[in-house]
């Protein structure tokens, strides 16, 4: 049984969670060739050779400390089934029958992909292993300054990683902050299929907050996923119609699940630091209830003290990254964090759902309302 509780980062242990909830009582009874890109690969080929039963299900994104691995990490992508909300509550179930999920080393596949974390001044050797793949891929890292051939764009570097191949990119950790990575081959489809993740460079002498979490936001047009699973639907990237809205790959209420979801778990008096990244194609104004926060970084750049101010909503454009900080000084309870484009906080026609998560005080975990929320989220204790 996993020890991971809450969003990726520095949450509480399972033992602390069980102690705070009193065991949850009865809750949980509910269940290199040419570098130029063409569209021929993905417009004529899907993943119907593998049935849903043959494919793994995605796991929540994990934090990979690349420094602890000698500065090296191997990334793979594989078809998988992704269930943003597998339950019946709040407009579920919501399923993407086919995604292309990144995994790191021997870890589980996830969308978004693993969170790669390193330290300023280090180099990462990132190997894209496509030996078992069925289509070309690349890796492009935002934020840091790297050599031309490591930019990950096949059209301008002449390098792509075809099926059966491997390629190692050297990614210097020379710009501290929170960044993203993604496949840059047929980008309009490959990101839509899930090929993106967060990349964090801690500055030298970094002082972590009491609680620190990573949250990735994305909207999806499920037609592409369903097309790649063999359904008779057409996806048009010029006429995109998002219908699934996720936080770290999950829709509410699954976002509140302490193991599969990404609740932000705090204790009163904590300093809280959230690294927010947008992997979608639309902007998302993210709002936290009953807490005012300060944006301290944007796209890896430190915001000067004189330019900082308190706010309760931060609008994150596609590929942007915002790091925000606040004190957990509210009345201990359960508060929402959600996109304020309210139609993004829906599962189909059901409200609430979608791009909505929760800020949960440990002191409130023993309440009846928290138990009810865990039942909605499908947590079985």
CATH class of the largest domain: Mainly Beta
Uncertain regions: pLDDT < 50 for 5+ in a row?
Answer: 26-36, 39-44
CATH homologous superfamily caption of the largest domain: Cupredoxins -  blue copper proteins
Average pLDDT rating: 92
Q: Biggest sheet, in brief?
A: 7 strands, mixed
Do you know the CATH topology of the largest domain? Answer: Immunoglobulin-like
Q: Can you tell me the overall shape?
A: globular
Distance between the termini: 11 Å
Number of helices: 6
Number of domains: 2
Order of helices and strands: HHEEEEEEHEEHEEHEEEEEEEEEEEH
Radius of gyration: 20 Å
Number of beta-strand segments: 21
In CATH, the architecture of the largest domain is Sandwich
Protein name: Multicopper oxidase domain-containing protein
InterPro entries: Cu-oxidase-like_N, Cu-oxidase_C, Cu-oxidase_fam, Cupredoxin, TAT_signal
Keywords: Copper, Metal-binding, Oxidoreductase
Biased composition (Low complexity): 43-54
SSE order and pairing:
Blueprint: H1 14-21, H2 40-44, E1 63-65, E2 72-85, E3 94-104, E4 115-119, E5 123-130, E6 140-141, H3 154-157, E7 165-172, E8 177-182, H4 187-190, E9 196-202, E10 211-220, H5 222-228, E11 244-247, E12 264-266, E13 271-278, E14 284-288, E15 293-298, E16 301-302, E17 310-311, E18 313-316, E19 321-327, E20 334-339, E21 356-361, H6 368-377
Parallel strand pairs: 1-4, 2-5, 4-9, 10-13, 12-21
Antiparallel strand pairs: 2-3, 5-7, 6-8, 8-9, 10-11, 13-19, 14-18, 14-20, 15-16, 15-17, 15-19, 20-21
């Amino acid at each position: 049984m996993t020890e991971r509780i809450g969003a990726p980062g520095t949450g509480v242990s399972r033992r602390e969670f069980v102690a705070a909830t009193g065991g949850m009582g009865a809750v949980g009874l509910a269940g290199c060739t040419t570098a130029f890109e063409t569209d021929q690969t993905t417009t004529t080929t899907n993943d119907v050779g593998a049935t849903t039963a043959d494919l793994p299900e995605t796991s929540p994104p994990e934090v990979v400390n690349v420094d602890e691995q000698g500065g090296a990490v191997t990334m793979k992508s594989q078809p998988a089934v992704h269930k943003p909300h597998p339950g019946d509550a709040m407009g579920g179930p919501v399923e993407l029958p086919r995604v292309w999920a990144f995994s790191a080393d021997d870890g589980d596949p996830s969308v978004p992909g693993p969170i790669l974390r390193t330290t300023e001044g280090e180099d990462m050797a990132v190997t894209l292993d496509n030996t078992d793949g069925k289509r070309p891929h690349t890796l492009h890292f935002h934020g840091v300054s790297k050599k031309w051939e490591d930019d990950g764009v096949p059209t301008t570097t002449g390098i792509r990683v075809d099926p059966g191949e491997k390629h190692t990119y050297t990614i210097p950790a020379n710009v501290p902050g929170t960044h993203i990575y993604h496949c840059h081959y047929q980008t309009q489809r490959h990101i839509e299929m899930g090929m993106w993740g967060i990349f964090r460079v801690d500055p030298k002498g970094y002082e972590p907050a009491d609680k620190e979490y990573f949250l990735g936001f994305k909207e999806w047009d499920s037609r592409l996923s369903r097309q790649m699973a063999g359904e008779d639907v057409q996806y048009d990237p010029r006429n995109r119609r998002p219908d699934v809205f996720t936080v770290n790959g999950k829709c509410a209420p699954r976002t509140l699940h302490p193991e599969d979801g990404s609740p932000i778990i705090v204790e009163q008096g904590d300093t809280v630091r959230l690294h927010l990244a947008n992997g979608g194609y639309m902007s998302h104004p993210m709002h936290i209830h009953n807490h005012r926060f300060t944006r301290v970084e944007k796209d890896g750049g430190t915001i000067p003290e004189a330019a900082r101010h308190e706010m309760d909503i931060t609008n994150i454009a596609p590929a942007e990254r915002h790091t925000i900080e606040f004190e957990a000084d509210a009345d201990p309870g359960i508060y929402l964090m959600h996109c304020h484009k309210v139609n993004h906080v829906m599962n189909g026609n059901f409200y609430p759902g979608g791009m909505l998560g929760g800020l949960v005080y440990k002191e409130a975990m023993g309440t009846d309302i928290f138990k009810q929320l865990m039942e909605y989220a499908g947590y079985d204790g």
